[in-house]
Amino acid sequence: MRAILLGGGLALLGTLLGTRFAIHVLVAKGYGQLIRDDGPTSHHTKRGTPTMGGLVIVLSVLMAYALAKIITQTPPSASTLLLLFLFAGMGLVGFLDDYIKISKQRSLGLRSKTKAAGQTVIALAFAWLALRFEDSRGNMPISSAISFTRDLPGWELPTVLVLVWVLIMVAGTSNGVNLADGLDGLATGSAAMVFGAYTVVNIWQNNQFCEITPGPKCYEVRDPLDLAVVAAALTGACFGFLWWNAAPAKIILGDTGSLSLGGAMAGLAVMTRTDMLLLVIGGLFVVITLSVIAQVGWFKATHGQRLFRMAPLHHHFELKGWAEVTIVIRFWIICGLCVAGGLGVFYAEWVAGA
Question: Which domain holds residue 85?
Fold first, then answer.
């Protein structure tokens, strides 16, 4: 438990203090955000705001976890090392995308196929490695079964399909957080709530861990307490960064942050055996992603008509005249309700019995 508190606290301090330094460096180098001309006109005032802020989150989480392990003198687990690999690897893809944008002064960074290829390589490498490293009970960092609040009986998949499933989850969550990163503080604040939920899930699973308290309701997972340290670090890092990212943002998360945070969400979901529950806990990101899919589908089906004034969904409300802060706070409320609902379902399943 001490490592969890250290991880969360150190990561919060890391982004709270480190982001201020990053803003100074990025402004000095002229690494500012480029704004799409077809977006809401109110966003033109954000042109030049320092971007790539997610780099501070990535570094803070990695350093906080390392320091927590050193201070508590406990070794890292295979699960957390793989989760951090996914987190940092997705952040690297986002960093390359952000750097190309600012260095070449264009609103598009990596080509879509190149970006997708980078995400695919990282996700498949994570999934392939996570199907190894069995513990004494035969549990691997991820299982071969699709899960909701735990593995679903009869839903075991062959290795190839497990790799595809993890790829879909990583790509879906990373791009979902990326789409939500359109208003000041929206993605960061929402991600903090989701990671806070997974901190609770991991702590609960550790308390009901089959290796410690065997029984009909126990959880067959791998390294839940160590995963809680990373989840707490992610929560703290997002809260610290939000100090600078809240409207009016002094720094923008960028693809470096959105892809890494989304990848970490997917990693925590598959490692806690709560694959499908992520659809509830991260419901806000699901709705935002579906709004883009619906907009594109409707546009093609009706030969040019739009379902929303603009997608993702938060831009639709902007064009309807809602203030940016109003949209962000209301979307945070929706995210909080999704998180509370997801945790409620998770606990209710345990109360009802496996």
Answer: 2-280
